[in-house]
Amino acid sequence: RYDGPRAAEILRKRSEYLSPSMFYFYKKPLNIVDGKMQYLFDQDGRRYLDAFAGIATVCCGHCHPDVVDAVVRQTSHLQHSTVVYLNHAIADFAEALASKLPGDLKVVFFTNSGTEANELALLITRLYTGCHDIVSVRNAYHGNAAGTMGTTAQYNWKFNVMQSGVHHAMNPDPYRGAFGSDGEKYARDVQEIIEFGTSGQVAGFISESIQGVGGVVELAPGYLPAVYESIRKAGGLCIADEVQSGFARTGSHFWGFEAHGIVPDIVTMAKGIGNGIPLGAVVTTPEIAQVLTRRNYFNTFGGNPVCTAGGLAVLRVLEKENLQHNALLVGSYLKGRLKALQQKHEIIGDVRGRGMMLGVELVTDRKQKTPARTEISHAMDQMKDMGVLVGKGGFYGNVFRITPPLCFTKEDADFFTEVMDIALSKL
Ligand code: PMP
């Protein structure tokens, strides 16, 4: 039983003492007090199936006992900054993490968030190349600090406050993009940005493997290999932002970029890496990592013992419970059921994604692709009342984002689909 502060009191404090820019998904925001695997519980003990997992943050399941145990155990031994002392936790986790990456990607820098990881990755590209220009993709989200805000291209959500030294390329969006699924045509745009908008040399390119905040947009096939070739010819480094698509979420692969048949120069990660604890990382090659000896990068809490002990536990759980395989099986099953739902509901314009990173885009007119913004908010509220939590995103805010913890079962997928079916029928 929960006998702490109720929703109304928290709302009052939040509006008085917290940032006025914080937003809610629901008309009546929930007061969530407990989490257990794929479930969340509110102040009245009501259970919700969590199909959003805090924006793809929880991968093993809420409060997974192995992760909790690792964090608690390490907290009772030592928690401090690892900048100037030795401690095994950071080294053990770096070694385990490196073993999950292809090629020569084996040097890890730890941070506290995805934003910090991407900021550091951008800095590395600029130090390594001596160039300033970065190419990123429209509709991307990479973070909210000075550099990453520039690479983020989400005007509609008011994320872009600052823009400097960044060129935004056409989004290779198979559903809304001008060239449909022809990845190589979109990649021409990057080549032309290099030719017409820069000195011919660039620092680098950054892209998610599947856009998350942007509405679970899978990049058109053939896009990334062609872009990587252009960028490398212009002397730049390629960054894969795996903050949402990493850590087995896409099911077919451990990292989202692997489905595109490319190997990045730098990989950034956060969210799933710690199953909810503040942790991020940048992984690159020994040769590229060497540039940071010129600058002496340090980060007080990045790689602290508690977070890295948690991170190591996450990797072990993913393996022990075969969660990548589950993401593939249950994710494909769920996608199939959602595709069937599309046959029934005219409002579903597109169903897309991989594994447990799925998107359902709502439109009021399938030909015009008119975003169904009010309808999605309405449906989300209905689903919440039936015990299912789901996210939303996309440039127009009309895409359901389905990113559950990877322990989601087939029964959960059935329940989720049935609830969405009822909510859409009621619109
Ligand atoms: N990259 C991607 C792909 C993200 O989705 C996010 C967060 N939504 C970030 C970077 C930034 O991560 P953080 O919020 O941990 O700073």
UniProtKB/TrEMBL annotation:
Which enzyme class, named as a word? transferase
Task: State the needed cofactors, names only.
Answer: pyridoxal 5'-phosphate
Q: Which reaction does it catalyse?
A: glyoxylate + L-alanine = glycine + pyruvate
Tell whether Protein biosynthesis is among the UniProt keywords.
no
What the entry lists under Pfam families is as follows:
Aminotran_3
Q: Which UniProt keywords apply?
A: Pyridoxal phosphate
Example of a GO MF term: pyridoxal phosphate binding
Highest taxon above the source species: Eukaryota
Presence of keyword Hydrolase = no
Q: Which SUPFAM superfamilies match?
A: PLP-dependent transferases (SSF53383)
Q: What is its EC number?
A: 2.6.1.44
Q: Which family does it belong to?
A: Belongs to the class-III pyridoxal-phosphate-dependent aminotransferase family.
Q: Mind telling me what this protein is named?
A: alanine--glyoxylate transaminase
Please name the source species.
Answer: Musa acuminata subsp. malaccensis
